[in-house]
Design a protein that fits this description.
Oligomer: single chain
Largest sheet: 2 strands, antiparallel
Helix content: 40-55%
Strand order of the largest sheet: 1-4
Strand content: under 5%
Radius of gyration: 18 Å
Number of strands: 4
Order of helices and strands: HHHHEHHHEEHHHEHH
Bound molecules: iron/sulfur cluster
Number of helices: 12
Distance between the termini: 13 Å
């Protein structure tokens, strides 16, 4: 794997991906497959805790901020299905209906727009409530992976729509990225859907069509094309699909 990893990150990628792939292959009951990936998400917490204390001390992210929750979020199908499971188990009927309304509005606003146009909308994620994530335990991998050392930089990047300020913390970002890529690659190696979806659009689909989860367990595409993460008009729509390449054999 060449993703600019240092030796430690490369080892984390191989260890995490190999373990997830072995567990997915040993799981016989389709209903238990998502539980394997829910457990794998704990690896983000372990990787964060293992990052140097000096790097962790620079993290500016705080509950109630939510600045980074105003950009399009991409997610693999298993992340969307884990979020849907959490919402179905934890949300009250009133909160569930309200969320469905926000997700439907999000989906309509994103339909037919390129990634650049979606980002320019600066739409708040439908899961953001009072500045905090309402599905924090089940948030997508890109949300788990993001840590900033500069809140003013986050705000000005959102304001201008351009990442003028680098707010990422290399010692943390590299570890998080290794875990994220390892899990997603292991899912693809096990034969599951490797496409990136727009999180809000696919979550709306998952919460309104229970067959999405069935299709995923059968190793079919979980969500329709109108839920795909958008690229630019001249880009190959399959360019970002993660495919089995024998990384962990
Ligand atoms: S899922 Fe949660 S953390 Fe991720 S963008 Fe939405 S509100 Fe923010």
């Amino acid at each position: 794997m060449s993703a600019g990893f240092n030796l430690e990150e490369e080892a984390l990628f191989e260890k995490t991906g190999g373990a997830v792939l072995r567990r997915l292959r040993k799981t016989r009951n389709p209903a238990d497959l998502l539980a394997v990936l829910r457990a794998a998400h704990k690896e983000f917490d372990r990787a964060y805790a293992a990052a140097p204390a000096a790097a962790r001390a620079t993290v500016a992210c705080r509950a109630g901020c939510g600045t980074c929750c105003h950009v399009p979020v991409g997610a693999q199908a298993h992340e969307v299905l884990l979020a849907a499971e959490f919402i179905q188990a934890r949300f009250s009927p009133v909160d569930f209906e309200a969320l469905l309304g926000r997700l439907a509005a999000h989906r309509a606003a994103f339909a037919g727009r390129s990634m650049r146009e979606r980002a320019a909308l600066k739409t708040a994620c439908a899961l953001l409530r009072d500045g905090s994530c309402s599905i924090y335990e089940a948030r997508p991998e890109s949300c788990r992976s993001h840590h900033s050392n500069n809140l003013d930089g986050c705000r000005s990047n959102l304001e201008t729509g351009i990442d003028f300020t680098n707010v990422l913390i290399p010692e943390i970002r590299g570890r998080m990225f290794a875990v994220m890529l390892a899990i997603d690659q292991a899912v693809a190696e096990a034969g599951f859907d490797g496409r990136a979806y727009d999180f809000g659009s696919a979550l709306h689909e998952a919460l309104t069509d229970s067959l999405c989860a069935v299709r995923w367990t059968q190793r079919q595409p979980a969500f329709p094309e109108n839920c795909w993460e958008a690229g630019e008009p001249d880009e190959d729509p399959d360019a970002g699909v993660i495919r089995a390449e024998g990384f962990f054999e």
